[in-house]
Design a protein that fits this description.
Distance between the termini: 60 Å
Number of domains: 2
Largest sheet: 8 strands, parallel
Number of strands: 15
Shape: globular
Strand order of the largest sheet: 4-13-12-11-10-7-6-5
CATH topology of the largest domain: TIM Barrel
CATH superfamily of the largest domain: Aldolase class I
CATH class of the largest domain: Alpha Beta
Structural class: alpha/beta
CATH architecture of the largest domain: Alpha-Beta Barrel
Strand content: 5-15%
Number of helices: 20
Helix content: 40-55%
């Protein structure tokens, strides 16, 4: 409650000034008027629904907006940069907030990027751009073994659990998904009313803790899964193998955030740290994973089932491909999570040093599926710092069919990147289980913002593709994305990277992939094991 202390102090000062004014001295009435104005501002801050910061920090929260006004003059000195040295956070915050508020994002004075630097990437526009289609393209999720395929948007809400996010944040995202016709991934924390009440399409994520569908000893419960997966809003099921923020480590929800409600939905003790295992107990080999996918598809009466992973060893994914071939069945989709992505709290060493970045992981998965003749049966999703229309188009060129976004979607519903997610003290009610803080997030207002952000970002991606002479994402080519690799040389993705031919690994594996292909076994995730 310390955040309300300034208002309380103003109220006490107002009473004291009022007494002083009544006892005499006209100058005190001026002080009374100023303090009364501050009290009125504080009262309005608490009841308004537009700004979560002001609802949680009345009066004091206006300092944030004052600093925002000063930011254009200061940002050249205080710019945050991402792993590539680009001002990612500054640009993303601006784009997401403006699109969520339906503000046009045009900028004065041209580019703010150093386009002459080595590493600069650009999309190739056409001298003959095509008209933008009336409806944004969508992609069908569902292979030959799926009887209930789903039409997926080019941009969707990536996995964020109830526990990591507040119930109000999830309700806002889900209602936004319902308004915009895009999918909302539950994260591994279970399927809850916060995900379902808004009417949006759901991708139910099943992690190694099997939260929401687990037995008393923490194993997968097929009966509970069958019942819950039948819900009309559950459109697909995703098995989480690993996540970009901390691949190879199970999820952790601090005890302070494990409320009675969360414990009930997850099936774990309340007010105790909730840790999911690093590995699944329902399967231990690639072959068993593929069989588990088929089992979930059967239990869900034919809904699309896939898995999410941050790619580490190429051998491991090739082992999964071999298991698909030998079992004669495939997942309906694979979501590739980049090591640079992830909104979850994680050890710094994992965030910076474990797992492949999205670009490399995405191309690895795409090439492996093409070269094993499986690509036409499996759609690929991409997740990892996807926030703008440019990000979407780049990922489609690199091998994805659609994208998921977590960080930008959080911003759309009010996240200001205070980086207090793990402390339960989120200042805007997005990443907290404190009901007094979560109340600051107005679901009706923020759901519209999530919808607007999605609508405007997908529209921008479609416009970019039209500028490239493309109306169907399937016609994008690797020639259309280029990179400056030294001061005098520019190469396309076609030239920079190896792209395998359909069935190449089955016929005559290229030398660069041969050792990994031979080391991959459908009966073990470990290279060279038999």
């Amino acid at each position: 409650m310390l955040r309300f202390v300034p208002v309380g102090a103003v109220a006490l000062a107002f009473m004291a000034a009022l007494v002083a004014a009544l006892l005499g001295g006209w100058g005190w009435w001026l002080v009374v008027a100023v303090l009364a104005s501050l009290l009125a501002v504080g009262a309005y801050d608490v009841v308004q629904t537009r700004h979560s910061v002001l609802r949680n920090y009345p009066v004091l929260g206006h300092l944030r907006f004052l600093l925002e006004r000063l930011r254009p003059e200061l940002q050249q000195y205080f710019v945050e940069r991402d792993v590539d040295g680009r001002p990612f956070d500054r640009d993303v915050r601006t784009v997401v907030y403006e699109r969520a508020k339906n503000i046009h994002g045009e900028l004065s004075f041209g580019t703010e990027r150093d386009i002459g630097d080595v590493g600069y990437e650009y999309l190739v526009h056409s001298a003959a751009p095509v008209p933008e289609p009336d409806d944004a393209p969508r992609v069908t999720i569902g292979g030959p073994d799926c009887s209930k395929p789903y039409s997926m948007s080019l941009l969707n809400v990536s996995s964020m659990s109830f526990g990591a996010l507040s119930g109000n944040a999830l309700r806002a995202l889900n209602r936004g998904a319902a308004l915009g016709g895009f999918a909302h991934d539950t994260g591994e924390g279970g399927l809850t009313p916060h995900h379902l009440d808004g009417g949006g399409d759901i991708v139910w994520e099943i992690g190694s803790g099997y939260f929401g569908t687990r037995t008393d000893d923490g194993r997968f419960d097929p009966a509970v899964f069958e019942y819950k997966s039948a819900h009309e809003h559950v459109k697909a099921i995703s098995i989480k193998l690993s996540q970009g923020a901390k691949p190879g480590v199970g999820g952790v929800l601090p005890a302070a955030k494990v409320s009675d409600e969360i414990a009930r939905y997850r099936g774990v003790p309340a007010h105790e740290k909730c840790v999911s295992p690093a590995a699944h107990s329902a399967f231990h080999t690639p072959r068993e994973l593929v069989r588990f996918v088929a089992r979930l598809r059967e239990l869900s009466t034919g809904k699309p089932v896939g898995f999410k992973l941050c790619v580490g060893s190429r051998v491991e994914f090739l082992a999964i491909c071999k298991a698909m071939l030998e079992e004669g069945t495939t997942p309906d989709f694979v979501i590739v999570d980049g090591a640079e992505g992830g909104t979850a709290a994680a050890p710094l060493e994992y965030e910076d040093n474990v797992g492949l970045p999205l670009t490399d992981g995405l191309m690895t998965v795409h090439n492996a599926l093409v070269a094993t003749g499986l690509r036409d049966r499996i759609t690929i999703g991409a997740s990892g710092k996807v926030a703008t229309g440019t990000d979407i188009v780049k990922r489609l060129i690199q091998g994805a069919d659609y994208t998921n976004s977590a960080r930008a979607m959080m911003m759309a519903v009010g996240c200001i990147q205070a980086q207090r997610c793990h402390t339960n003290t989120c200042p805007v009610g997005v990443a907290t289980q404190d009901p007094r803080r979560a109340r600051a997030l107005d679901v009706d207002d923020k759901s519209v913002r999530a919808y607007r952000y999605h609508e405007n970002t997908v529209r921008q991606a479609v416009q970019i593709m039209a500028s490239m002479g493309v109306s169907d994402p399937a016609t994008l080519t690797t020639d259309m994305l280029r990179k400056k690799i030294d001061p005098t040389t520019i190469r396309s993705y076609t030239e920079l990277y190896e792209w395998l031919e359909p069935g190449a690994l089955l016929a005559d594996p290229p030398a660069s992939w041969q050792a990994d292909w031979l080391a991959a076994s459908p009966d073990s995730f470990r290279p060279g094991a038999v």
